[in-house]
Write a sequence for this structure.
């Protein structure tokens, strides 16, 4: 059965050339999640400036197969500071890699929109961590961090903990590898990103969880970041 969708808010996550003048778009939509669309003659038509990432679009499509055909696209140029390109490319790659096709998520969509609303100025580290956390929690890849995963007791500020992927924080000795104070865990749960120790904890825990769920797949945006950093 052929489906036809109109007036759907969406973002382009990735695009690639197809044949002489067309594009295949990986898009993230409000009500249909992530899907692929064929944009016929997109590199030649008057709307070609819209086939870019980092802008909120309104699109339509039709088709009965997995690859649908784009039928309409509207939008406007987004104000994105070039310093934020790499962060947004990383976020796009995360969505493409982790979010299953045609699985809608209002939470992830809104969190992504919040990032784009900051893109004209500066996307700070805490916003990236919150997006990663939202993505992992929504997909069921991140455990509860308010309680000790072993005892079930509330995290205590005076104790020390280790993070175990898919399980959570477990009490340990202060001298144990990668141990962190309960106070820092509590501060992270309360979103106190002004503290460097909270930023370090969030980055370490979220990155290890993301890498685990990528099943060995490398993110190209990380490689680009490392290349740029090595030249500075």
């Amino acid at each position: 059965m052929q489906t036809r969708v109109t007036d759907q808010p969406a973002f382009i996550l990735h695009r690639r050339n197809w044949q002489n003048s067309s594009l295949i778009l990986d898009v993230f939509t409000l009500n249909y999640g992530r899907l692929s669309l064929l944009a016929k003659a997109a590199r030649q038509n008057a709307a070609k400036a819209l086939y870019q990432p980092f802008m909120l679009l309104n699109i339509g499509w039709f088709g009965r197969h997995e690859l649908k055909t784009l039928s309409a696209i509207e939008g406007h140029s987004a104000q994105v500071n070039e310093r934020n390109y790499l962060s947004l490319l990383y976020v796009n790659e995360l969505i493409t890699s982790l979010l299953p096709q045609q699985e809608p998520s209002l939470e992830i969509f809104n969190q992504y929109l919040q990032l784009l609303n900051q893109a004209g100025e500066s996307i700070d580290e805490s916003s990236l961590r919150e997006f990663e956390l939202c993505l992992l929690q929504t997909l069921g890849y991140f455990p509860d961090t308010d309680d000790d995963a072993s005892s079930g007791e509330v995290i205590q500020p005076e104790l020390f903990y280790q993070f175990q992927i898919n399980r959570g924080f477990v009490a340990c000795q202060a001298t144990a590898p990668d141990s962190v104070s309960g106070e820092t865990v509590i501060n992270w749960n309360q979103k106190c990103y002004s503290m460097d120790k909270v930023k370090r904890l969030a980055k370490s825990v979220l990155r290890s969880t993301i890498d685990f769920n990528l099943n060995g797949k490398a993110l190209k945006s990380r490689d680009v970041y490392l290349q740029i950093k090595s030249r500075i």
Observations:
- Residues 26 and 36 are 5 Å apart (CA to CA).
- The chain has a mean pLDDT of 92.
- The first helix runs from residue 85 to 98.
- The two ends are 54 Å apart (CA to CA).
